[in-house]
Design brief:
Number of strands: 0
Oligomer: single chain
Strand content: under 5%
Shape: globular
Helix content: over 70%
Mean pLDDT: 83
Number of helices: 15
CATH class of the largest domain: Mainly Alpha
CATH topology of the largest domain: MetI-like fold
Distance between the termini: 40 Å
Length: 285
């Protein structure tokens, strides 16, 4: 019996060791290109184009990052980062707010056709922005929202996926809570604000991380509705930095911009990782 237990511990220890080795290798494979981009952002142009490419940081960190942030190629990167931040936060908050209210109405209010309305919302998953981009552009242009934050945000804030996830979570909330709130004289919105939203905190956090990254990585829609360079997003800016024709690429500035573009999503993921993981795997949701 003791030998069997000892063998099980050895097998478990070997499996744990192998798992950690594979995880470390995976992290190194993913991190290596990012490391090369960081190194390229700290050296001079001749050092990048002359092989072999250096694998250790150079001495031009401040010069390259200052040039990217405040000079850039077309627009300072600081401006594009701010535009992307406003867009990503606006899309994430807008999607969550609308989805919370939609799911609450579908679950807790009895009105004709509520199931039909839910499935109509769900069917919009078949119509992403790319499919309806021409009529959406016409509507935005008709409202005079080109080259504006409202034009960047409003057409993208409806989310059938978030509505579906919140609906499924609200269905798990015991009916006794709603009955107790009604007996205490709480209005539906008071029940929503004081009970439903706090219980949905982990779900909101998980969706915020996903939707923030979704908004941050948008390229086609901002490219279509913005003609003013001051409204460029960081993803657009990186694409525009690549040379056309016989132009020479400023690779240190491009790499510095790429590293700067990674920082806000990384900060959001790290700062909300605990709630994010709980929102995805918590069995008591």
């Amino acid at each position: 019996m003791a030998s069997e237990t000892h063998g099980m511990v050895e097998k478990r220890g070997a499996g744990l060791w192998l798992t950690h080795v594979l995880m470390i290798l995976g992290v190194l494979v993913i991190f290596f290109p990012i490391w090369l981009a960081f190194v390229a952002s700290t050296v001079s142009q001749p050092e990048i184009v002359r092989p072999p490419m250096p694998i250790w940081p150079g001495d031009r960190f401040w010069e390259n990052y200052t040039a990217a942030l405040f000079s850039g190629v077309n627009v300072p990167v600081a401006t594009m980062l701010f535009n992307s931040l406003i867009m990503a936060i606006g899309i994430a908050v807008g999607k969550i707010a609308i989805s919370l209210l939609s799911a609450f109405a579908i679950v807790y209010f009895r009105f004709p056709g509520r199931t039909t309305f839910f499935w109509l919302i769900f069917l919009t998953l078949m119509l992403p922005v790319e499919v309806r981009i021409v009529p959406t552009f016409e509507v935005v242009a008709g409202f005079g929202m080109l080259n504006s934050y409202s034009g960047l945000i409003f057409p993208l804030i409806a989310s059938a996926t978030a509505t579906f996830l919140f609906r499924q979570f609200f269905l798990t909330i015991p009916d006794e809570l709603a009955e107790a709130a009604r007996v205490d004289g709480a209005s539906p919105m008071r029940f929503f604000i004081d009970i439903v939203i706090p219980m949905s905190r982990t779900n909101v956090a998980a969706l915020f991380v996903i939707l923030f990254i979704y908004g941050w990585n948008q390229y086609l829609w901002p490219l279509l509705i913005t003609t003013d360079p001051e409204m460029n997003t960081i993803v657009m800016g990186i694409k525009q930095m690549f040379p056309s024709g016989d132009d020479v690429a400023e690779w240190p500035v491009i790499m510095a911009t790429s590293i700067l573009a990674m920082i806000p999503p990384v900060i959001v993921v790290i700062s909300m990782q605990r709630l994010f993981i709980r929102g995805l795997v918590d069995s008591e949701k």
